[in-house]
Design goal:
The protein is α+β, with helices and mostly antiparallel strands and 621 residues long. 25% of the residues lie in helices and 22% in strands.
Length: 621
């Protein structure tokens, strides 16, 4: 999968998929009497784009100059430099301090190449994978990265790490040393084609460093890493600065050439995105991805923009846009009936929102795998029906014959007709209107709930939704809390409704258990925010993980998509198919953009442009 699951934490390298070594330039070896593929990389269903002798990725500039300082921004706060545990709010950018066994390329959907590992060997039945470490791999204190570090990391993350890791590596039975520089991962029963790749994206942590420290505690002591950057300065809750490691051990590897060009990267924290935007225009930081259509259309005004020293660009991408929407916590009694969830979705008027708040910039989301071939559409294909038919009776009947479309107010529909339809669904579910309030016909209890946010700017989207709910007799209120409180409440499912932002990949797999499985529904820290407990969904997730080829993966993923959509767990929002970025005119970037990422780590500071900005000084800022 290709998903930043712990967005504020380690920013795990994007997951790819498994190998076909004969097609990827690898050789064949024999191990334990069974054919094993040996290669420099892994690919799920087909060729690796880059052969064993490749020098660099196509989307980098191998001659990009090193140097310059970059200031970035984050909203909220942080109180920990340990991103591997549930406790605390990790600082932004920590992923740059830790290396992994392999690294993904951003112009392939499902491929990974060796970083700490120089050679990868996998059994034909995918029951194990072995990584041979590079002898030159080093932590920042100069100590070598060893097999013992890899084994210790796996055991520690599985037993003491964030619940995400415990679920993610659950099917990894053990890691064992099989040579001076070789570690073998042995997998449990069942088919999971991604497991060899999943262990490859694991960050490798220094056993000797953590032997005298409590791994399960938050800390503001900069941890020992091995990545291209190390922490230079920390102002708790306010800023963190990283400095490029001048003698970074992997700087000349093909997977690193042309990347990590900035000398320093500093993240400053702001109270909310409104303050953050004003700080950007005042020159307090250099680069800003813009998520607000209104801000993009109307917020970028001022002397710096008029003089052309701030640039705005929309950079197209081919990344699946996943799902953003209001997610129901079905652990709450009022949301257990899918007819109630379906009804309330009619109160969200996307067309009005897009027209009045977003200047028409967005497309309505109608799939958990939007902007990809994995998204369900039309009626189920024969391949999808073959997956769905054994589940008939345990999934909504609409799945078999009807394309899911979120409620719309586009003509001939209207908000009024939608609300009337919603009332019919609510009556069927046992709710009635009394004294202008929607109440449970059995108990007389009114329908009321809270929408939890951590970003004030999203209130302008929520408040019109609340007004429409009032017309149904529903009392909804919005509560905006700070980052730390929001994370704690979401991690422990202490909310009625919140905003789900779920990135998906072109190769969904093991992570889907954390999103949807019954086993994860009540596990603190899981991404199953809706609290889904469905044997049918569990079955579909298992089928996706075991998919033997691309066609079956597509059919099974579309089948899961249909079941989730007709379960009405989310009120879908909207998406856009490009990166909107604004930056002070001091950067250059490669001529080729990666298909599946912004690739900011391939940009560099142009010394002449940076000097010109300094000379403009206060006149521009």
């Amino acid at each position: 999968m290709r998903s930043r699951i712990l967005a504020a934490a380690v920013l795990l390298p994007l997951l790819g998929a498994l190998p076909c070594a004969a097609q990827s330039g690898g050789t064949m070896a024999r191990a334990a009497g069974q054919a094993a593929a040996v290669s420099h990389g892994l690919s799920m269903y087909g060729d690796l784009k880059y052969g064993p002798g490749f020098r660099h990725f196509e989307y980098v500039n191998p001659k990009a100059p090193k140097g310059g300082d970059v200031r970035l921004a984050a909203v909220g706060t942080f109180d920990s430099l340990n991103p591997f545990i549930l406790k605390g709010v990790p600082a932004a950018g920590l992923g740059n301090a830790f290396d992994t066994l392999t690294v993904g390329s951003d112009d392939e959907a499902f491929s990974r190449y060796g970083l700490i590992a120089e050679r990868i060997e996998m059994s034909a039945d995918r029951s194990w994978v072995a990584y041979t470490l590079r002898p030159e791999a080093r932590f920042h204190d100069g100590s070598p990265i060893t097999v013992e570090d890899v084994v210790w990391t796996l055991e520690t993350l599985k037993t003491r790490g964030h619940p995400f890791y415990r679920a993610y590596y659950r099917q990894v039975v053990r890691a064992e040393k099989t040579g001076p520089h070789t570690v073998r991962f042995v997998f449990g029963s069942g088919v999971n084609r991604e497991l060899p790749l999943i262990v490859g994206e694991m960050p490798v942590l220094p056993r000797h460093y953590w032997s005298s420290r409590d791994f399960e505690r938050t800390t503001l002591e900069p941890p020992l890493g091995s990545g291209p950057y190390r922490i230079e300065a920390v102002d708790p809750g306010r800023s963190i600065t990283y400095r490029r490691v001048p003698d970074y051990w992997a700087a000349d590897l093909p997977v690193s050439v042309g990347r990590f060009n900035f000398d320093t990267i500093r993240y400053d924290y702001y109270r909310d995105s409104t303050v953050e935007l004003e700080a950007f225009k005042a020159g307090q930081y250099d680069f800003r991805p813009e998520n607000s259509a209104k801000a993009w259309a109307t917020g970028y005004r001022g002397p710096a923009l008029a003089q052309g020293v701030i640039r705005k660009q929309e950079i197209p991408h081919e990344i699946p846009t996943g799902m953003q929407g209001f997610v129901y916590n079905t652990r709450r009694p009022i949301f257990r009936d899918p007819r109630v969830r379906q009804a309330l979705a009619h109160a969200f008027d996307f067309e009005w929102t897009n027209r009045h708040l977003f200047a028409g910039a967005y497309t309505r989301t109608a799939s958990y795998f939007s902007n990809s071939e994995l998204a369900s559409r039309g009626r189920p294909s024969p391949g999808e029906l073959a997956v769905l038919e054994p589940l008939r009776g345990s999934i909504p009947e609409e799945v078999f014959a009807t394309e899911y479309r979120p409620p719309s107010t586009a003509p001939p529909r209207s908000l009024r007709s939608n609300l009337l339809e919603a009332l019919g669904l609510l009556r069927a579910a046992g709710w009635t209107v009394q004294d202008l309030r929607l109440v449970d016909a059995r108990t007389g209890e009114p329908m009321q709930f809270e929408i939890l946010l951590n970003e004030p700017t999203f209130e302008r989207i929520v408040l019109p939704f609340i007004k429409n709910l009032e017309r149904l007799g529903v009392t909804a209120r919005v509560r905006t809390v700070d980052t730390a409180q929001y994370r704690y409440r979401v991690d422990h499912f202490d909310f009625d409704m919140t905003v789900l932002v779920l990135r998906q990949s072109l190769s969904p797999g093991n992570e889907q258990r954390d999103f949807w499985s019954s086993e994860r529904a009540d596990r603190p820290g899981s991404r199953n925010l809706a609290g889904i407990r469905s044997p049918a969904v569990d079955t579909l997730v298992d089928l996706i993980i075991a998919a033997p080829d691309r066609k079956s993966l597509v059919d099974r993923t579309r089948a899961l998509d249909r079941v989730l959509l007709w379960g009405h767990y989310v009120i879908p929002h909207f998406h856009i198919r490009s990166f909107r970025v604004a930056y002070w005119d001091k950067f250059e970037r490669p001529a080729v953009s990666p298909r599946f990422d912004l690739g900011f780590d391939t940009w560099w500071v142009d010394a002449a442009k940076a000097a010109a900005l300094r000379q403009r000084g206060e006149a521009a800022r």
